[in-house]
Design brief:
With about 600 residues, this protein is mainly beta. The longest helix is centred in the N-terminal third of the chain and has 4 residues, at about 130-135.
Length: about 600
């Protein structure tokens, strides 16, 4: 269970190699990569920040999602411009025969979803909002936060060979906190539109797609004065022709036009990045089965150009290969490898990456080039009568990626906005899943390493988690009553902490009596090397009950959850009050024990 409502994105964290940073974010790392290295799509349109504040709310109404595809690495050539993974959501087409809907109410949010026939086709409309700031103070959590999201989808089939769809997605989040003399305001949101046509011509399937993605975020802090704004949009044209059969050749193109703005003002330090980059890619692949072998090989070639500082052109070639050998129809050995590039990056700082609700996106420019990764997988996949078992070893090498430094020179952004790094991640993961019977669930384990290289010295990246175990179990007590239990364990993530303090004494010959004095009149502090310290291990158990019944021809489901059953005080971060002597370590914890109750009515 998850607090209040199901979350398709949060459920990914039960898969091996997928790491969440905290209870307060649905952001996820895949095999040690950063969250911005994951490509997230809704009906083909890119979502740049698909997260509400905290992990209490999914970005999508789960009842509006028809299918979720996840590639944790070595994704095929039709996807590009990211280094780690692809997560693609498809919305429900809508009921073509009659109006249907569901209403969901919980302690802190509500949603309504409607679907049915419309103008020869069918539609879906879903909207959600919350009263988060009204209820959580009862649990000693006081966060003035508002949000809403809307999904609308129209599906039309003028002929059996042709499908047309149109999807719109809107969401907005706002957090406003005031504690004298500080006023903090944060807002972010997506405006997304997607239009697609699928047509069958003989033995070929043709797909054409046009989308618009707009993301706006802003941060305003009154003391010290800080303002950050990052509005940008992308228009994407994409097309593909492929064999209607499982095997065959497919090819396509993918082009995007952007408008980026990044404005920053921190205590008078001010700069602005405005650029209109263009990205174009062509790709082709072939999938073929011969005897016990299944082979899929392809190549993706791309060009990216930006003009901030100076006009630059970047060219890259991404070959990819997947090979499966079927010992039996239900048991296969597989290996895969590929090259990946990412020209749109974020201003990600190692010390802040785990606490960020969203990131600031900009294109590469100046001396910098697109990030690059080489991936390799080797493993086995077993289909069992009641589920599946996967054992997978992976290695991901980063010959080039970018991290934000602690400070930049506004007069020389083309040379100082990023630090250039190398690194790698490697690990072994396994997953056992049971889909049939009264007891269903997932058990997964991942052993992972994720490091960066700086001046011949390796150090841990922010999502380096050595061991993680995820367990999900559903037990159908009777057909109308289900018990759910989840347990998550992960070794502590790295962080940069306070290591020592000192006085810097100087000789003062100018006083009434010559003497030694402290340079600043107070203690000075030494931080550890970046990510040299570890948080305590994270673990949490949630339990829930799902009860289904019928009331006057309405399908009703009662959902009761207890989050963090044994009230584990997982650490979000440490804050040091340096005014005291000695300095006091203040621990900021994640979610405490919280019960929740929700009701879903289908009609």
């Amino acid at each position: 269970p998850v607090l209040v409502e199901q979350d398709p994105m949060k459920s990914l964290q039960f898969l091996p190699g997928v790491t969440g940073r905290s209870d307060f974010s649905s952001q996820f790392s895949v095999r040690g990569g950063y969250p911005d290295q994951n490509l997230i799509l809704l009906d083909g349109a890119v979502l740049y920040n698909p997260y509400h504040f905290a992990s209490l709310f999914s970005i999508f109404d789960p009842s509006a999602i028809r299918k979720m595809e996840f590639f944790p690495g070595n994704f095929p050539v039709e996807f590009g411009e990211r280094l780690s993974s692809v997560l693609s959501f498809s919305t429900i087409g809508g009921n073509p025969h009659r109006i249907k809907g569901n209403l969901y109410l919980s302690l802190i949010s509500g949603r309504l979803c409607l679907e049915g026939p419309l103008a020869g086709g069918n539609f879906l409309f879903s909207t959600r909002t919350g009263w988060f700031d009204k209820v959580l103070p009862l649990f000693k959590i006081d966060i003035p936060y508002r949000f809403y999201d809307i999904i609308s989808h129209y599906h039309y089939e003028p002929s059996p060979e042709t499908r047309i769809y149109l999807t719109c997605f809107l969401n907005r989040d706002a957090v406003e906190i005031s504690f004298h003399p500080v006023d903090l305001s944060i807002e972010w949101g997506n405006r997304v539109g997607s239009f697609g046509i699928r047509k069958i011509l003989g033995n070929y399937l043709i797909k054409s797609h046009l989308s618009y993605s707009h993301f706006l975020n802003s941060l305003s802090l009154s003391f010290p004065v800080m303002e950050m704004n990052n509005p940008f949009w992308e228009v994407n044209f994409r097309g593909r022709i492929e064999s209607a059969n499982e095997e065959g050749i497919s090819a396509g193109w993918d082009a995007s036009f952007y408008d980026f703005n990044y404005e920053m003002n921190v205590i008078g330090l001010e700069y602005n990045i405005h650029d209109n980059p263009v990205r174009v890619a062509l790709f082709a692949k072939e999938r073929k089965r011969s005897g016990k072998f299944l082979v899929e090989g392809g190549i993706r070639g791309g060009m990216f150009t930006s003009k901030f500082v100076e006009r630059r052109y970047y060219w890259y070639l991404d070959p990819r290969l997947m090979l499966k050998f079927f010992l039996t129809e239900g048991f296969a050995l597989f290996t895969a490898g590929g090259v990946y590039h990412q020209p749109i990056v974020t201003l990600t700082n190692q010390m802040r990456v785990g606490l960020a609700t969203f990131y600031y996106w900009i294109p590469v420019f100046g001396k910098y080039k697109p990030e690059e990764a080489y991936q390799f997988d080797l493993g086995t996949h077993s289909l069992l009568p009641w589920g599946e078992f996967i054992l997978d070893g992976y290695f991901k090498y980063y010959p080039y990626f970018l991290i934000s430094p602690d400070s930049v020179d506004p007069q020389n952004l083309g040379e100082t906005i990023f630090e250039e790094k190398k690194g790698f991640s490697a690990g072994i993961s396994l997953m056992l899943r049971k889909d049939l019977g009264r007891v269903r669930g997932i058990l997964s384990y991942n052993l992972g390493y994720s490091l960066e290289k700086l001046d011949s010295v390796y150090r841990y990246l922010s999502f380096d988690r050595r061991h993680s175990v995820d367990f999900l179990c559903e037990y159908e007590i009777i057909p109308s009553l289900t018990f759910v239990l989840t347990w998550i364990y992960g070794t502590g993530l790295p962080y940069t902490g306070l290591q020592a303090r000192y006085h810097f004494w100087v000789w003062d010959p100018m006083g009434e009596e010559p003497s030694l004095r402290s340079r600043l009149g107070k203690w000075e502090f030494i931080l550890s090397s970046p990510n040299a310290m570890r948080l305590p291990p994270y673990h949490r158990m949630d339990v829930g009950i799902r009860w289904k019944t019928t009331v006057k021809n309405l399908s009703v489901k009662i959902i009761f959850d207890i989050i963090n059953v044994y009230n584990r005080k997982n650490v979000l971060y440490y804050f040091y009050d340096t005014q005291g002597d000695p300095p006091e370590e203040i621990v900021i914890h994640m979610l405490p024990l919280i019960p929740s109750l929700g009701v879903e009515v289908r009609f």
